[in-house]
Amino acid sequence: MLLALVLTTSACSSAVSGTATPLTGNLAVVNAPGTAAALAAVKTAAEAVFSYDSANPAAFDQAVAANVTGAAKAQLTALFEQIRKNPRPVRLTTTVARAAAVELTGGKVRELAVLEQVNGTTKGLATVAFTALEEGGRWRLSDIAVNPAQPSPAAHPDDGSLPGLRDSALAGARAAAGALFTTDSGDPEGSYARAEAVAAEPLLSDYRAKKATYVDAIRKSGTKVALGPDPMAGVVSLTGGRATVVFFTTLKVTAAGGTTDRPFTTELDLVREGPAWKVTAVRPITAS
């Protein structure tokens, strides 16, 4: 069901002289009901327009008309051009496997989503950044970016507030991802040490137990791996000093033959230790 996000004076951060102060800024996670409603709406829209049955192409056109606006129409046309021209039968079903709101401001949401797609016996995953607008009580996708690289919203100060805690966790996740997933076969010990420094239990014990294996694998890889520009992250859950974050980047893998791009999506569990956030678990997102 598509739910319209309505910010009213009942959603307030404080009361001064009996007057409610509406929440402002990036409300992702901060306004939990609004975030859930927007995510549910985008899930419905995304699953509708990323599914396609060659036996009934009109249904796809109707889904696009109902759920898409602006630049996203041309983006979807380009994405599905080859599928629609395929002479073989296609019955593509898409479900949202993971989603996290990156930014929520009024009637606009930007989210990071992992789509699971099934066509017959073939399964695959795609990571997409969606922007959606609320128009006349209905959310419509306005921008679609596959394997996205987009700047993060301006961070709220780490001042003990919920927005500050959210953005601190996201900054911690991006920093930890840089340490965990950046490796250099020319410096395997240093690569391991950077990863160990951002790990907390139980991940820390696992790293230490397998140190020789990890160092040897890095050395033998013959590659240098770096995060791509503008990695994206969104908070799935945030409770006190613990957070779960969906993280995406296009890894830059450099070997003797040159540099290749490798899209990479994972889920990170984090815990706050003093001012720093450390990773307690890494869960690669795979097709079910």
Any overview of this molecule?
- The structure is a single chain.
- With 288 residues, this protein is of the alpha+beta class.
- The protein has two domains: 22-146, Nuclear Transport Factor 2, Chain: A (Roll), CATH 3.10.450.230; 162-284, Roll (Nuclear Transport Factor 2, Chain: A).
- It is built from seven helices and 13 strands.
- The chain has helices at 32-49, 57-67, 71-85, 162-181, 188-197, 203-209, 211-221, and strands at residues 12-16, 19-22, 52-53, 91-105, 108-119, 122-135, 138-146, 183-184, 224-226, 232-239, 242-255, 258-273, 276-284.
- The strands form three sheets. Strands 8, 9, 10, 11, 12 and 13 form a six-stranded antiparallel β-sheet that branches.
- Helix 1 runs antiparallel to helix 2 and helix 4 runs antiparallel to helix 5.
- Residues 1-21 have low confidence and may be disordered.
